[in-house]
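Chain A, query sequence.
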Amino acid sequence: MAKKGLGKGLEALIDLENVQEIENETTNEIDINLIDINKNQPRKNFDKDKLEELARSIGEVGIIQPLVVIKKKNRYEIVAGERRYRAARLAGLKKVPVIVRELSKQEHLELSIIENIQREDLNPIEEAKAYDALMKNHSLKQEEIAQILGKSRSAVANALRLLNLPDFLQVSIAEGSITAGHARALLSVEDPEIQKSIHEKIIKEELSVREAERICNNLKKKEDKVPKTKDEEITFAEQKFSDKINSKVSIKGNLDKGKLVIEYYSKEQLMEIFDMLK
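Chain A, predicted structure.
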């Protein structure tokens, strides 16, 4: 399968754990104060204890694997190796070993994202946002991301589903208060207030993923048995939308938050709706 969106030669650079072994690469010692972090990289949180542990190791034996950087005027920006860079600063190093690469802006972003996704210490939300960035910025499909990273398509799809959760649940996952498994169980609950209540119960009672799934599934069964009545304003809005685009429109949610679902029954009708919404 073709890997659309990947810059020229990028596939050869994906395995950054072995970057020092690539032929014809020159390692340079650069003043650490001339190096800037890459603001677009997916990892936002660094474990303080692990960073200090790495800093102690670097203080004793130095940096074994060089950073990968690009040159920006008289400074350098990290493509791969921010964790080593942060630890080196903690260790008090004045200079660090780097490999200077010439990359296009697209290659720079892709390489940084792929290097970080391949690491095991990304939290599930950082990983999901990295996949999302590859899809939106580089026209990659879920199947292509899965193939590049050696993951299953379902693993990528399940990760991306986490971005449908409200912010407070995404923060909870990133902080490790609940697991991605707990969060996927909560995806079946539409009401944010009920989600919050179950979330608090999971943490307070230290529920397993299976226990959380059981609670959410039982709640879903009860909701399905209760006939739902729609707000008159929502019903009115649905009718207006339907009349406007000559197709069935459903609003799921309430007046404050919800989803707008537009149905179509042929490719031609889809294109007509698309033209109306432009």
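The chain has twelve helices and seven strands. Confidence is low (pLDDT under 50) at residues 1-23.
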